[in-house]
UniProtKB/TrEMBL annotation, chains A, B:
InterPro entries on file: HTH_LacI, LacI/GalR-like_sensor, Lambda_DNA-bd_dom_sf, Peripla_BP_I
Pfam families: LacI, Peripla_BP_3
SUPFAM superfamilies the record matches: lambda repressor-like DNA-binding domains, Periplasmic binding protein-like I
Gene3D superfamilies cross-referenced by the UniProt entry: 3.40.50.2300, lambda repressor-like DNA-binding domains
Keyword Transcription attached: yes
HTH lacI-type domain residues: 2-56
Recorded GO MF terms: DNA-binding transcription factor activity; transcription cis-regulatory region binding
The keyword Cell cycle belongs to this UniProt entry's keyword annotation: no
Family matches, as PROSITE patterns: HTH_LACI_1, HTH_LACI_2
Keyword terms, alphabetized: DNA-binding, Transcription, Transcription regulation
Protein's UniProt name: LacI family transcriptional regulator
Length: 329, 329
DNA sequence: TCGGTTTATGGAATCGATACCACATTTATC
DNA sequence: GATAAATGTGGTATCGATTCCATAAACCGA
């Protein structure tokens, strides 16, 4: 492996000079510069970024913590982040918590010890330990999707999105609307979306039966199971619509309903949230909400970059969303 | 930021001893060990991995080069890689070439200078510069999806998969089979799959018309456009089936055909490759080929890890696949 | 021609860890 | 009880870059 010293020796200069050439900094004569550049090319020398990072306390890497690596949401967000940071020659170090809370905290420490210059977290929950860990890490930090106290956060407007979907169902004459959600440890997806639904139902004085409320785990299969429970448990009082907090669970629910011979949306309407590719191509096309995940990633990256350059006050940004009306309602 | 020196001072020992505790290496007395561990916990000290990596020449990071970050294939592969490497406490450094050939090479150099311990490349093309760059990087290296000379590669059996799909169509009495492919700069997807199709047609003495062969760019939209061209240009001689080399293009083609009032598979049958989630939930469900991408990622990671521990001869592994017969043929 | 910039280069310290060697003390072995 | 082996700890060099300071030649206006 060639190092800066090798180059220096070969060029008959000090390594300081080589460093100056490499970083375009300070005075270097034309002929020395050319000589060095030529050697760099010939030897294929690339500076050791560990050494550089050790000295400069900057790594050029930003850490991204994902709840699950292979989801459409995650990959869209990452794509947005990447688009922004790669322009400034930053790399992304990816970690995957597999929905494990402790790992979130573990990774924050890990990323810190890897000298990342900043962290973006796709959060799935809020807890004291987590905010504590973020505080002690003392790094530029952005959270996407959850409103973490003391942390600049990019938020989806879960409450209003859910309310809008519910309202839209109501405007289609639905009065008996069921709900497939997720656990409330996830304050955004599990909490706010449910509130949006419940409040809207209440405002419209529509009764809700316990059997209509089911809780899944984000997966298509769990959507299927929840729909089954809803149908089985409320035989005498079937809902005419089901609001699912994610597209995938909505797809699962549709699958079950179709198997059972229900026609969508005639017998039962369905809507989801997420605007997955899937939602567009199922039949009937799924009514859903576009959260502009990629844009959230871009925004997060921009904020992070800004925060890295200059300490900024913590802020909250609520993203807009778009209701996509299709055929399932 | 606390360093190993701070801990050493506080514990009244040398930093050598602290290092020994941290790495569980060499002799340390119980009481010193406890004292140090306690301090580590109290201060929240995490060792600088840049320093460590500078000294040890190992970074605990493996680089992954993707053609496009937000695709189902990529995220499945990454998920597989992650599953394996995270068990051994490696992290993934992700890079995204955005289908840009030069970036592939640039990233190899970049990852090298970041001291990654190995690289996994989801290759989309083969060229001299690329194999050259891999050679000079001189790092443990695995390619997925393309047979790179001199590089351990995990390959999908594109030729036989395509032949199988074509044969299956033929066994359903199709004689006029069209083809939607991609450019042959991608030897696997563009080259081998096409060969599989062409050879199978030839073996069965089935004629192919030029208008039946179209080339897209992996996107759903391009599938749509290709289908349009096929239908428009061969009005007098419509195919009864279209084989698409990717699911997404198949979905696009289906969309166009549906718009035009064709019934699938009665009027025209369709099949893809990739076993995307999408393929399962479109109507009619798409016949496709499962390439076990996640498994490919796992395998790649295992091979890479093995290669990192011990120099291994370069090998080629051809993965198996599974034809998934659904309703679109 | 003289003092002051500007240009050009090198030397030494430093970042935070690990590795190797040296040395002292205990413990085991015959 | 002498010698060998195991245990415990510290000192110093080192990894490959950057940074700061020193030095010197070239240039320049008065």
């Amino acid at each position: 492996m060639t190092t800066i010293n090798d180059i220096a020796k070969m060029a008959n200069v000090s390594r300081t000079t080589v460093s100056r050439v490499l970083n375009n900094k300070g005075y270097v004569s034309e002929d020395v510069r050319d000589r060095i550049l030529k050697l760099v090319k010939e030897t294929g020398y690339t500076p050791s970024l560990s050494a550089k990072s050790l000295r400069t306390k900057k790594s050029g890497v930003i850490g991204v913590i994902l709840p699950k690596i292979s989801t459409e949401t995650a990959s869209r967000v990452v794509s947005g982040i990447n688009e922004v940071v790669s322009k400034e020659d930053y790399q992304i170090l990816l970690t995957d918590t597999e929905l494990n809370k402790e790992k979130e905290i573990e990774f924050i420490r890990l990323l810190k010890s890897r000298q990342v210059d900043g962290i973006i977290l796709l959060a799935t929950n809020i807890n004291e330990d987590l905010t504590q860990a973020i505080q002690t890490a003392d790094l530029p930090f952005i959270s996407i999707g959850q409103d973490l106290p003391g942390v600049t956060s990019i938020l989806y407007d879960d409450y209003h999105a859910a309310a809008d979907v519910t309202n839209m169902m109501i405007s289609h004459q639905h009065k008996k609307i069921a709900y497939i959600g997720v656990g409330e440890q996830d304050p955004s997806v599990g909490g706010l979306r449910k509130e949006g639904y419940l409040d809207t139902m209440a405002k419209n004085e529509l009764p809700i039966h316990n059997e209509w409320i089911q809780e899944g785990d984000f997966s298509i299969e769990s959507g299927y199971e929840c729909a089954k429970k809803i149908i089985k448990n409320s035989a005498s009082n079937l809902p005419t619509a089901i609001f699912c907090v994610t597209d995938r669970m909505a797809i699962g629910a549709m699958e079950y309903l179709r198997e059972q011979g229900f026609s969508i949306p005639k017998d039962i309407a369905i809507a989801g949230i997420g605007a997955s590719t899937l939602s567009k191509y199922v039949t009937p096309a799924l009514t859903t909400v576009d959260y502009f995940n990629k844009h959230a990633g871009e925004k997060a990256a921009q904020l992070l970059l800004a925060q890295m350059k200059k300490k900024k006050p913590k802020e909250k940004f609520v993203q807009s969303y778009r209701l996509i009306k299709r055929d399932s309602v």
